[in-house]
Amino acid sequence: MPALGVAAKTAYAAAEPFWQAGQNAIIGRTLNRVAGSDVQSVIQRLKGAAPLVPGSLPTAAQVAENGGIASLERSAAAVNPQAYTNRKLAQALARKDAVDSVAGTQTALDDAINMRKTVADSTYGYANQVGPDPRVFTPEAQANIAAMQARVPAKALQDARDIANIYGAPMDNGTVVNGLHWTKTALSGMADAEQNPAKAGALKYLTGQFNDGLEQISPLYGAANSLYQDMSVPINQMQVGQALRDKVLPALTDHGMLGQERANAFAQALADDGLPARATGFPGATWGNTMTPAQMDTLNGVAGDLARVKNAENLGRGVGSDTVQKLAMQNIASQSGIPSAMGLVTNIGGKPLSWIYDGANDTMQSKLADALLNPQSAASYMSNAVPSFMTNSPAAKNLLIQSLLRSSMLIPSAGATADQVLTPALTAE
Fold first, then answer.
1. pLDDT for the residue 309
2. Alpha helices in 151-256 (DSSP H)
3. Which residues contact 176 (CB under 8 A, 6 or more apart)?
4. Within 13 A of 233's CA, how many CA atoms are on the CB side?
5. Residue 224 in contact with residue 120, Cβ under 8 Å?
């Protein structure tokens, strides 16, 4: 009777590849088998799969976090390389577009910088020409300005004159605002270049006082400052974005090469607190005061997407498998209940069996490859896989058992055997 159960299960498994429901069951059981003991968690992760970057659709291996699924996907990619190459290129292009949405183009950055300079020359020039507002340029304010000027290092005063002369706007032209502006500019440069932290802090403090004093005596100068800062925001964001793009994408990307991102370099750059200051040239620039939350979400999404790809690659580096190529034969072996023996039989009869099953195998390979490219589809196959022969067919199972029991009335001992031995043989995993 156990032999009859094995024969029935083997016959059913041999026929399964030839109809759609059977093929779907084989694919689902294969996915469940390679997922191992983590199968339920894998199913949940596959069901919840979502892009971290718009347009970068993840594969099953990239979200399953499972070595078996990753190895199976690697084998499927070898069988159907074009589909997986297309997905890889689409993901790389989506990540490039995401970074470019923050970085902009070099032309856009240059245009923004030139526009800021044009506006700054006009607004600061007008503030310098008009000079201080007499309503606020009181004797007290003048005394405060004089006290600040007395604290300026001689080198800063010389630098201020040199900078003003280079720009063609000498600071000794009789306008107080003009002279104070170039002095502030020289102090800021000295602070940035100073290696002594204490002295650098003092210079920054004095620079801030000059700026506050200027805005107090010249509202027009304050308005020019605000406009300059507003126009600097998108410029600084593009500068940071381009610094990150240079880290993640090789130069050949500009000439059409995709799929060769430097994931580790990008992640390290994103974790570098000093990058915004270096990219923008402003020592006080940070991620928080330079980039918007939406931009940081985009950049972190790119980093997470790259991590998904690397995780799947690392998890799938095990020894290659021919599971994808021999779905039908492996199904017969595993479903028979005596996988080792049936595996030997299918190997011995490999050539004739391949003639019989080549068409079904090709269909199942294509279905499996498509499922691994679509995590929700893979989860559906796994959730709906029929565990074994007759487990989900209680009516047919009971009919067979009752028939055997009735036929065994001539041999009473066979009835108990049918119930105790045949039933588990028919339905066991």
1. 93
2. 154-166, 176-193, 197-217, 219-248
3. 131, 132, 137, 145, 217
4. 11
5. yes
0.85 surpassed by pTM: no
Contacts of 192 (CB under 8 A, 6+ apart): 200, 283
CB contact at 8 A, 280 and 113? no
What's the mean pLDDT in 420-427? 50
Give pLDDT tens digits for 9-47. Answer: 555 555 566 557 778 888 888 899 899 888 999 999 999
Closest CA to 16 of 3, 34, 30, 2: 30
Three-state SS at 96: helix
| Contact in structure between 377 and 76 (CB atoms under 8 Å) | no
Q: Which residue's entry shows tokens 């990307």?
A: 253
Neighbour tally for 395: CB within 10 Å:
8
CA distance 110 to 100: 15
Residue position matching structure tokens 């070898």: 78
Q: Both ends of the chain: CA-CA distance in Å? A: 17
- Four-CA torsion 208, 210, 212, 216, nearest 10 degrees: 180
What backbone torsions phi and psi does residue 103 show, to the nearest 5 degrees?
Answer: -75, -30
Q: Per residue in 130-143, pLDDT tens?
A: 889 999 999 999 99
Closest listed residue to residue 323, CA positions, set 45, 12, 69: 69
* Residue from 91, 89, 105 nearest 54 by CA: 91
Confidence at residue 205, expressed as pLDDT on a 0 to 100 scale: 94
3-state secondary structure at position 349: coil
pLDDT digits (tens, 9 = 90+) for 341-372: 444 444 544 545 454 555 567 788 888 899 99
Residue type, 188: S
